Give the backbone structure.
Amino acid sequence: MDNCRKYKKIIHEYLNKERSDQIKKELDTHLLECISCKEYFDSMLILNNSLKRLKKDYTIDVKDAVMKEIEKQQSKPAINRKVYLRYAAAFACMVVVVGVYILTGGFHNIQRDKNYNDTNKELSEVQNEETVFGITTAFDFENQDRSVLSPGYKMNQEDLSTYNYITDKNYDEIIGDITSVSDEFLILDVCTVTEKNELSFISYNIDTEKIAEKLNLKKDSNYKTDESASDNNEYVKLIIIYSD
Amino acid sequence: MDYSDEQLINMSIKGDTSAFGILVERYQNKAYAISIKIVQNHDDALDCVQDSFIKAFRNLGQFNFQSSFNTWLYRIVTNSSLDLLRKNKKYQNDVPIEKPLTDDDDEYFIQIEDEKSGVEDIVQSNETVLAVRRAINELSDDFKKVIILFEIEQLSLIEVSRILNVPVGTVKSRLFRARERLASILKEKGTF
């Protein structure tokens, strides 16, 4: 049997045209003696010949079609196609941004042209704020007053009470936590001043303590709540100093 | 002047598209022969060959001259044809009968065949060849590739290995198993 296995391998080597002359005699001798190998060899031979008969010489002419297509493509240089793709990508981004703006009623980045009322920060510093998109989009449209989200809405921040907190969490962690509570609470105008590790947002006055508790915030002893702001104001501003 | 493939490729890269036209003329028939075995449809094979040349032209800059152009082209043709075959499943059960098969002047096994009785009659049968063609359709892609490139198109083991980008040993191993699988299919169908 081992011998047959050896000849089976030789048969395939023979079919592979690897060692035809050297082993031909030896193979022929074995095939005369072994019916099993002879049957195997015959079936492989029929197969091999049938496969070879499938080979045909064809004559086609695709040159003109290929050259025409290549010339057509060359009239639109690859670099231009890339530029078009970039325009398309930029347009798609713009559509997404406008869509988000319309759906959320604007980003409410009203702090861009106002100073923080409790720290007298310079306008130039405030202009470094980075609006965090996506947070306000979690606003529950069905249960909240849509008027606060209407485009062009301006909230007078000077009238807002400001609450200062600190947290041991870093930026990514606190932003993640804020995002996770945004379904539960109204959270607007999330802004960051990265140079100062400062993050702020506006929320309902009534929710302030609950939000602080949910986010595990500690009151910042360096600040006192702005007494000049009306306690009756519906909204408050929370400023959080996060860790590096 | 008869330019080498390498010269024509360099001229094409520099913008001489007519040089690429010479390459198309040089290899289109063989490329078609490979594709038609896989897709088994004239129009699809023509499309595959055209697309393959266009792909090759677009990527000429990436051709590293470590293999020959035809090897690289046949790889593109093989893969494009298999991709098309997968998309058009219908071809798997719709094997067109091409023009009647005729005897080939292939002498490779003549001497051995002469020593056996009865085998020639079976080999001569067009039905057997057609059955083999149908059986090829039942092979996996890897087996189909080696059978078409080595057994039908008569490329060398090294050429097949380069086209498929696998070691020669892998080609041999696949050939062994592909032949056995084909024989098994043909036995099941009563051809052998």
Chain B has two domains: 1-94, 103-192. Chain B has ten helices and no strands. Chain B touches chain A through 53 residues (CB under 8 Å).
